[in-house]
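RETRY 2/3 - previous attempt timed out on the joint model. Re-submitting the same 253-residue input unchanged.
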Amino acid sequence: MDNKNYGFETLQIHAGQKPDTTTKATGMPLYLSNAFTFDDADQAARIFALEEGGYFYSRLSNPTVDALQTRMAALDGGFGAVAFASGTAAIMGLIMTVCQSGDEILAANNLYGGTIGSLSGTMVGMGFTSHFVNPTDLEALEAAINDKTKIIFVESVGNPNGDMLDFEAISAIAKKYGILFVVDNTTPTPYLFKPIKFGADLVVYSTTKYLAGHGNVMGGVIVDSGNFNWKDNPVIHYLICLIKHIMISFMQI
Ligand SMILES: *Cc1c(COP(=O)(O)O)cnc(C)c1O
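RETRY 2/3 succeeded.
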């Protein structure tokens, strides 16, 4: 569907999904298939070479995951999205994709405890250093930036404090230094807040919480605004990031 013409409520239900042409089913099926067929060998070659859209292996994507990714990008006003097995996997996958060993993350000190644990524990062992700052103290935030800082990471509504930030001011600081501004929007979801409108480059979610809503499934998503200047070509870089993400197979759905 063409998302541009629909309101949020319609996108919530329909974005990223076409009615099944064979069965006419309205619900999105779970495609429990790793492999997919091709019209012929030439089409297979084009799809494998990413020259033509299509599914060829579920670690990269499949119709079910694709519907979730496309829907989340539509709800957030983003360019594309990548789904993960949990919110923590999304955050770890993001850092492992964007940062190299030795790089630094500037993180708000009011983050979800599990994220603080990952940033100050597991990630340190992998060579990524995090500095935790009070995100309302913009001077301290800017002063903590150095030439190794790759990401400013905040939560739109902090879990559990429920506090909010001056997103546009933090985005301006991130832009000034060419740093990726990442907002964890798990608590409000795009229904209540759309971080991309306020300058976020990437939005991450634990879909385990309010997005799924029923306490019966875990998941995570990264939505790319398409606005970050990834060198000179945001589209190509996004695709490279996508491929790097999906190589981290153990984290994928
Ligand atoms: C729960 C949560 C996470 C981690 O997500 P999981 O799906 O539990 O891995 C990350 N950020 C916030 C704000 C959360 O509430």
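The mean pLDDT is 89. Closing ticket.
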